[in-house]
From TrEMBL:
Designated name of the protein: 10 kDa heat shock protein, mitochondrial
Keywords on record: Chaperone
Native organism: Drosophila ananassae (Fruit fly)
Any matching Pfam family: Cpn10
Family: Belongs to the GroES chaperonin family.
Matches recorded under SMART domains: Cpn10
GO CC list: mitochondrial matrix
Statement: the UniProt record of this protein carries the keyword Acetylation: no
Coiled coil: none
Keyword field contains Chaperone: yes
One GO MF term: metal ion binding
Length: 102
């Protein structure tokens, strides 16, 4: 029995990101195949884990991004997450994110 995912809470230093949509049509209205369109390297942070465990003691190290931040992503990597809607979600470790965009 399949059920819709209501909320995803990443573990430790993992971050759930929604990739920006890539335009698949040209200005003239021509549809481009998915293979010819490069992946979008930007996204929005949807959910953030509590952070990596602190090796010096109890607690977690804080994460540098928060929900709603725009980030620059690597071309390859991450784990695809299927959440039964039209958007593409990818799970990354904090160290995999290249930059925070303002």
């Amino acid at each position: 029995m399949a059920s819709a995912i209501k909320k995803v809470i990443p573990m430790l230093d993992r971050i759930l990101i929604q990739r920006f949509e890539v335009k698949t049509t040209t200005a003239g209205g021509i549809l481009l195949p998915e293979e010819s369109v490069p992946k979008e390297m930007q996204g929005v942070v949807v959910a953030v884990g509590p952070g990596a465990r602190n090796p010096a003691g109890a607690g977690h190290l804080s994460v540098a991004v928060k929900e709603g931040d725009r980030v620059l992503l690597p071309k390859y990597g991450g784990t695809k997450v299927d959440m039964d809607d039209k958007h593409e979600y990818v799970l990354f470790r904090e160290s995999d994110i290249l930059a925070k965009l303002e």
